[in-house]
Amino acid sequence: MKRSALSLHATRMAVLALAIGSLAGCESLNDVLATDRVNYKDTPSAPPLTVPQDLSSAPTDQKYIAPPPQMALGNAPKGTVTSAGNATLGTPTAQDPLGMHIERDGDRRWLVIDGRTPDDVWPILQTFWQENGFALATDSSATGIMTTGWAENRANIPDDWFRRTIGRVIDFAYSSGTRDRFRTLVTRGADGQTDISITHSAMEEMLTGQEKTGSKWVERPRDPALEALFLSKLMQKFGLTDAQSKQLLTDARTSTVVAKIDNAAGGATLDLPESFDRAWLRVGLALDRTNFTVDNRDRAKGIYYVRYADSMQELKGDGLLGKLFYSPKSAAKNQEPEFLIAVRAKSDVQTQIAVLDQHGQVDTSTQAQRIVTALHAQLN
To answer: Which residues form a coiled coil (predicted)?
Structure first.
């Protein structure tokens, strides 16, 4: 018997409520990081991510291309054996005996790899996301930005008798009504380190209309536990054991400084009491937590190129009707304007963040001040 849209929606809500309730009641990191919480490998198809033509390509000038790293067999850097017996990707030190550690700012976490460059880890990251069931929508080693396509976490679908019998035949039509996407930022850090952050974005299909006959996609909050889970899985990809990766997450080093708004420049700017390297990383993380998407970035100039992200537009191509009637060209025409976020060192321990206009001056528009306010909230 075909279930009604309302019944299907009720099932989805019950499953999500159970998952959220279980997570809220967890008392151990093992529960939060359980690998059976995710299964993107069985996703039959993921909604396409449309990137405007004028934003899809990164600079290809030879001076921006790093020389190829030294690779071992399997096209991956050779690991270093630690005192614990791991062949870890990182370089073990007295401070980091496993060659890596986790830092955190509130519920934001990132992985620090010792002795490796972004070029060393990039091919491993490509393989990592593909092994976890994701197609890559953005794969730009020149900018250090890697974004997966939208995919469904099939672990959220109840494995009841209906699915185990009839549902297996039409499993492609059995859906949780949710989609997830992950953005990875890879940044060259200080002292030969590489910083890797993973940010989660989510959408949910909600029924609309008095009779609940229609539906629309709405944004869901990011899930810090999912971000931590994939950081744990990534550390295991880099050579750690499951227990070691969870221990590093437990022992995450706190890194928090307060950003202050400065209105003296004619438009709102932010001051961060830390070095450029640190501020550059934290601004990238903060932008990932807002509704602004980093399309490009130039570390040498200290510029992030961002635009307002409309996830609804990116999901309109999902399904048969969407593929027939959704036009990437029309989406490009409706694209939001691009903003320039400047990160500039005022001293060795002080950095200024500002939104610039097309002439390189501090932008005093209402939109620019909203961006500054959003960054201020994320950095504190």
So the answer is: none
Contact between 273 and 349 (Cβ < 8 Å): yes
Q: Percentage of the chain with pLDDT > 70?
A: 67
Q: Rounded CA gap, 229 and 213, in Å?
A: 36
CA 266 to chain centre: 33
Structure tokens at 247: 């221990």
Q: Calculate ∠ Cα 247-248-251, nearest 5°.
A: 85
Question: Which residue type is seen at 338?
Answer: E
Residue 378 forms beta bridges with which residues? none
**Number of continuous H segments (helices) and E segments (strands) in the chain:** 11, 16
Q: Where are the domains of the chain?
A: 1-255, 257-380
* Residue found under tokens 């206009």: 357
Give residue 27's identity as a one-letter amino acid code: E
Rounded CA-CA distance 276/190 in Å is 10
Q: Are strands 350-356 and 338-347 parallel, antiparallel or unpaired?
A: antiparallel
This prediction has a pTM of: 0.69
E strands, 24-99, are: 80-81, 87-88
- The CATH code for residues 257-380 is 3.30.310.170
The DSSP element (H or E) to which 7 belongs, if any, is: helix 5-24
Q: Which residue has the higher pLDDT, 380 or 3?
A: 380
Could you tell me which of 287, 117, 296 has the C-alpha nearest to residue 189?
A: 117
d(CA 259, CA 274) in angstroms, rounded, equals 10
Give 242 or 310, the one with higher predicted confidence.
242
